[in-house]
Amino acid sequence: xxxxxxxxxFSLERSKPGKFEEFYGLLQHVHKIPNVDVLVGYTDIHGxxxxxxxxxxxxxxxSTANPLLRIFIQRKExxxxxxFGTDTMTRKxxxxxxxxxxxxxxKKPHIVISMPQDFRPVSSIIDVDIxxxxxxxxxxxxxxxxxxxxxxxxxxxxxxxxxxxxxxxxGIFISRLVPGGLAQSTGLLAVxxxxxxxxxxxxxxxSLDQVTDxxxxxxxxxxxxxxxxxxxNNVVRNSRTSGSSGQSTESxxxxxxxxxxxxxxxxxxxxxxxxxxxxxxxxxxxxxKAAPTNESIESxxxxxxxHESTQNGxxxxxxxxxxxxxxxxxxxxxxxxxxxxxxxxGTIITL
Amino acid sequence: MRRFLRPGHDPVxxxxxxxxxxFNKTVEHGFPHQPSALGYSPFLHLMAIGTRSGAIKLYGxxxxxxxxxxxxxxxxxxxxxxxDQCQLVTLLDDNSLHLWSLKxxxxxxxxxxxxxxxxxxxxxxxxxATQITAVLPHSSREVLYLGTESGNIFVVEIPSFRVLEDxxxxxxxxxxxxxEDYCNRRSCELVEALREHPKNxxxxxxxxxxxxxxxxxxxxxxxxxxxxGSQQLENLYWQRDGSKFISCHYDGSYTQWPVSSxxxxxxxxxxxxxxxxxxxxxxxxxxxxxxxxxxxxxxxxGGMPRASYGDRHSISVVHGSQQTAFDFTxxxxxxxxxxxxxxxxxxxxxxxxxxxxxxxxxxxxxKSAGWPAVHxxxxxxxxxxxxxxxxxxxxxxxxxWERIIxxxxxxxxxxxxxxxxxxxxxxxxxxxxxxxxxLTGHEDGTVRFWDASGVCLxxxxxxxxxxxxxxxxxxxxxxxxxxxxxxPPLRKVGTFDPYSDDPRLGIQKxxxxxxSGYLAVAGTAGQVLVMELNDEDAEHVVDHAEAxxxxxxxxxxxxxxxxxxxxxxxxxxxxxxxxxxxxxxxxPAVVTSLALHSEWKLVAFGTSxxxxxFDHQQKRLVFVKCTLHPSDQLALEGxxxxxxxxxxxxxxxxxxxxxxxxxxRKRRGGGGNVQEANAKFDPDALQEMELAPVQRKIEAxxxxxxxxxxxxTLYFADTFLRDSSRHCPSLWAGTNGGTVYAFCxxxxxxxxxxxxxxxxxxxxxIQLMHRAPVVxxxxxxxxxxxxxxxxxxxxxxxxxxxMQGSHQLLVVSEEQFKVFTLPKVxxxxxxxxxxxxxxxxxxxxxxxxxxxxTDDYSENDLAVLTNLGxxxxxxxxxxxxxxxxxxxxKEDVSGIASCVFTKYGQGFYLISPSEFERxxxxxxxxxxxxxxxxxxxVSSNNHVHTRSGVENAYRDLLLSCKRGKQGGTCxxxxxxxxxxxxxxxxxxxxxxx
Lengths: 351, 993
Description:
The structure holds 2 protein chains of 2 kinds. The model of chain A is unreliable at 85-112, 239-272 and 292-351 (pLDDT under 50). Chain A contains 8 helices and 14 strands. Helices cover 21% and strands 24% of the residues of chain A. In chain A, the strands form 3 sheets. In chain A, strands 5, 6, 7, 8, 9, 10 and 11 form a 7-stranded antiparallel sheet that branches. In chain A, strands 1-14-4-2-3 form a 5-stranded mixed sheet, covered by helices on one side. Chain A has a two-stranded antiparallel ribbon with strand order 12-13. By secondary structure, chain B is mainly beta. In chain B, strand 51 (728-735) and strand 52 form a beta hairpin. In chain B, helix 14 (947-967) packs antiparallel against helix 15 (970-980) and helix 14 crosses helix 16. The radius of gyration of chain B is 31 Å and the shape is elongated. Chain B starts with 10 loop residues before the first helix and ends with a helix. Chains A and B meet through strand 7, helix 6, helix 7 and strand 12 of A and strand 49, strand 53, strand 56, strand 57 and helix 11 of B. Strand 7 of chain A pairs antiparallel with strand 49 (695-698) of chain B.
């Protein structure tokens, strides 16, 4: 069975969204798939793909719709969980590269521990397989949250093992975590952790100010590699006997992980393609990428995306035009004319 | 991970890069920071200045300059030229002696250190035994006499610095046959002065600090005369014929002593206290110069009455009934008199007095009536009022050049017409390729126009904006208006005046259109003046306009300084640039960006609150745009308001800041000064620093940050803003918060220019999501060439821009370079700097680089200075890093902030408050000193310079670089290595063919 790639557009009373069950039924009805289990997701104001699976997040989704609520529906057994929580729309390359490389992903077993699709990630430990056990690479998802990154760094010194024996070298350390900040809430970073890399670039030899500037420049998608001050909570891998760095040949994790790193880095590459332009005091729009050459996946139209997505279990996407009852939601911008919104160049309205 | 790899090496491009780019620091312009010693060679007509950081600089005829740096970076205490030689000896404060010589290599002379030497006493002797206090290079050119603290005089051979122990003159020997009672009172004296007899090289005069003076016979090793001075001795001077000498003293007196063969213990001829009878300060140096007419010139430093004039830095010139005490603006380091040095001449006939003060060089013409000052062609005191900004304009049309010079010459009427008296050496550098102007804005509201075409940075014209405003400065506050019978007869000389009457006058931005002669300057209190060049004096009213940048934003109160009060009615302006309109920004915050379009007759200006566009033809404000974020209270209040005391005593505070800046800023490579400065730090402050370790907050930039509305850059462009069929004038503005605004302008055609208003409409607003400050905006035409300057095409100096192909917009933020398409804004290319390298863009300019191999190839690239002091060249339009050079130490914040690039790949930055370092990134455009100092006898010995010699020297240079790297302060040492032989680049040229 293969879903067609198509849009369904329908209206919904904004002030009375009703229950999730009803909505789910409505979707199944609209798409004429009454007996298929599907995952429902929507893109929030930050362009993140977030799940809808209960009344709460359904209401949240409706209330944030502005004015369109764009729904993505995936068949449950084919669902790509990893797509959730990433800013699908703005970093299409990332998601798409997952989507467009089905062979990669088909081999990859989904180890679903709980329901990751229910949460928006705020941080993750990545590249566990290629890093020494004593190191930890932490990604902080700043986008989509109002939480400050919330940490401070300082100069310090650490002891390194060199061919000439132990050597004291200058280093950069986390000096303070702001209570309630992203860094603290993740629990993955702690005071006195030594910062080794920022988004793949070693900090050794760089001054505190340089590292500060690098972190701020990468703040929307910050990946820092630390040597935790507390080494007792490290990930223990049976495949590795020591914390030597380098690629393990008998990695216990799928061999596709280097691709994930590449994806992350690509993702970082594109992460700030979110510049906004307001033309003639019109609506703020995301600045698209120019020159639709073959290397530019971003320029793929949404239609293509939907075609491809069938292989990966994407259901036709739905866009709902919400009937906004007077006064219920104050909106700064007028209802978008659906035709004005040029799907051809993948422009996204972000406000 | 591919993007971490270096871009693939294209051998063709790599070769081309070698033909295009080359980094050299070529010359230091301005006045040496913290000079400490002065020397002069009457034989070579060269002057040498030593500094507290160990630099030594030689100056001769304009363009003849040499520089050296002592490796120790210690203060240069004394400089002595070896008579009739291209050599000089320096004494540093670590008691080391250094022999430098000028030698010719590949046609040009170079200054090189040949030997160094530290006098060592016998084991166990106290350091004072060998502490050198006086140096006398003997006219035989073979030996140096070194007077020491112990009173002994050592003789060393040059150039070997071998001590000739048998010729040491001990103080015991000198004291023989001195009356017992005199001797007892004055034991243990240091040697204050050593002077060779002007006619008899076998006799030297030895002055001991407590007053005893001895004439010593070198042949017989014995005293011939004792002069029993009763006052503490400061200095000695021989009269030309050797029959008399003068001693000057600590109590402000000088004494004339006769030297005759019969009296071995002569009495003084006369003892004078010129500014007595009340206690006077010491006379530290004296000249007694004979003239044809019989009246001598007596010239002495100091001697002022202690109580009333003890704080003056004076040198008095007495000639018959004429007497003037030249009153300098800063401490006098040393001075010398230029007089007839021909041994056959009968009289001294002094022609000029050269005075090195701490902050400037002053030369007085002693031949012309009234002793006017001579305008120095170099060593200009750039900091006579602190430099607040600079602006460089390349390739000035001859017409404008001549008009500026003519305006400047009217300002310089009070200078002497004497040709520059220090005229040694020959400048063999090719003529400067073009006429370049460097404009410096100053804190006192002046703009100085410098001829920056060649090696000598020369003041052409000084523009003052003060006249437009009413300031608290008392117009009658003139130091020079002293009555006829004032005593002492003080006369202020020099231009150094660091104290601004009102810091609001400070110039912050300058924009000169070289084609039209329009000039816009903007200042600290939100004032924007538009000026026009007028060759005549004129009196006219300056039109005023206000630009309320807050528009209708309510509820704000500006807590910063007030705007300047303007003068009502017509104001008289001297020939030169004359303001015709004043636009006052409200609130009167400092103007942070300025752009002038002389063809459209528009001026754009920005502050921390917003920006505006003014039509200076119709004298009408076109529009204002508020960029202030509503929550940004800090920007609103004005940065100054946070320091309450500042408001109270603005002026004093600024002075204090200045003073601390002057004292703490050190020249590059000044390792000794760093230590000194560190030592001065309050130990408590240091402790405090240790207790609270430096930490940095890591937080994403947000729209709510302070000063996001600060307008960083403004740019006019004729481009496609709305659609691709019609181009139109446009104004672009970039803010601190990463926002770019574009306004579409409608400028009426020339024939209706005065009838129809200029209209503006906002066409685009781009928000960079990384929100870093936008520091540069540029539009590239259809050929990816930056749009030409206004009127450049009209003057046939540039090709018309390509309006067929699509234009591109380059936005440079502190963190990234981004190229967008136009008119529809889509992102095309980008280069991330900060995310990858941790450095930020401080300055960016388009520069044209020509190939040194072929005349027909040149390309435009971006010259970028980062906050780490590196210079990067980035290609256009593909944003590929071409090359990177370390240029300024990253700690040198003021140096980095002061950097200006030229349009042809050169640049300037301040290495001290008073000096610009000039550098070149181009192989083609290189302005550096190249000169020859000829000396017949010596050149015959030194003519044979083998190539290996050159190579050795170059290897030394490389070695010193390497050593520097190991030492950890690599930048400093490299700097020094480059500085210590700026000839290094010449060698490279030489070796490379």
